[in-house]
Design brief:
homotetramer, alpha+beta, Thiol Ester Dehydrase, Chain A, five-stranded antiparallel β-sheet
Chain lengths: ~140, ~140, ~140, ~140
């Protein structure tokens, strides 16, 4: 299991008239967490696409426990349990500065060939990169 | 079970570099469906708030089956099975113009007092409005 | 001068914690106005792209006079003074239901070849379509 | 003249089907620049609001020169020439990692009483804070 953390500051545009972060904004926060999780391995999702693969979202699930407010510095914790072979799952938790768990969720991605739209195995070199760093 | 439908046209800002609607955009589409579902009863979520109640999102779940593209005219089908008493569930399905089911999901809302943050029963007059139209 | 109008309903996700529509949301509303302006000629921006042209934004200017609120039904008035030859300007005004002018602005687009990134003349067939309807 | 810089990483949700950052997304980037400009003085816009003042946007202007791409690390340069007394102007420039100027613009804010909606002078303590750091 690999855990990575990144921070995001809530801006005005992320909030809604209830005075808190709009529930739909969290999909973006989750994405930022995944981007930085991948970057921690020395690769980016841009590299994945350059390798001829896309990872469209198959399922998104978020449970909201407490609100986040404007200017909060949030911690996005990204938790990956399985290697991105074909279909894989990424868990995300978001905390505020006082350590409260604000929401948690899971996203399912499917490694896909953008030309055919069919599932495709992640190339070995990418797997190796992720495996290697798994052991450190 | 009450079903209501509304339409939305995909704009450029809803898409991402994969050439399709960004997965996070659907939370907004689902919300638009709920707004119009409520309007079909002659009330709006603004009325709910004026009655001293908010309906924050407790859980969001979306399964993505096929992509939506720029300029697609989508049909948002909102399916409500239980009256909004305390905790209630709203199902949503989105279709494109050829009738393909693009995604389906469910959102859980909790009727809440915005001052205390505690769950609170939906007032009777609001329930009656929703009941009345249920029978038509 | 061609004027077209379309309507948009403000959703929760469009607002911010000041209780009004976030100023950045209006770029999206302006875009929706342009999309419907083009559709009124029987073409869509998708057709423009299929003809091998893109219209990236060169300049955006918005003056905000009054706020828009959740659930307001806004009228987007799109005003086009020059044919989309190379560089062209589209004015937009947004009104609420009581007829108040909420904001006005202008966007400048440049007809561009997406491969070279260079300005390119809009093809004659597209110009003709826009001219034809100008006279009706 | 006070200049502050902050960084932002472009996420997928910021892009559109042209493969670049959606032009409307920049309003959000500009806002993040202003937030961090203010934070560099030891205050936040949350403090401004707690002091009974809001700074709604009166005018927004952006000129787009070059596109930003997914995963680009952008530098947001915020340039403030006048103290936020009543009506004040904030310039913003955005650069990519190779130092290209991608866009520049200006936003005009009006110090406002949220109850009356009337312009109101920024309180002296806030001015002093901004003045003090101006000299360092």
């Amino acid at each position: 299991m690999i855990i990575r953390e990144t921070k995001i500051r809530v801006c005005y545009g992320d909030t809604d008239k209830m005075g808190v972060v709009y529930h739909g904004t969290y999909a973006r926060y989750f994405e930022i967490g995944r981007n930085e999780w991948l970057r921690s391995f020395g690769i980016t999702y841009r590299n994945v696409e350059e390798a001829g693969i896309v990872w469209p979202v198959r399922n998104l699930q978020i449970t909201y426990l407490k609100p986040a407010y404007y200017d909060d510095l949030l911690t996005i914790r990204t938790i990956v349990q399985d290697l991105p072979l074909l279909r894989f799952h990424i868990k995300t938790e978001i905390y505020n500065e006082t350590g409260d768990l604000l929401c948690h969720g899971e996203i399912t991605l499917i490694s896909t060939n953008p030309q055919t739209g069919k599932p495709v195995k992640t190339p070995q070199w990418l797997i190796e990169k992720l495996k290697f760093l798994d052991q450190t």
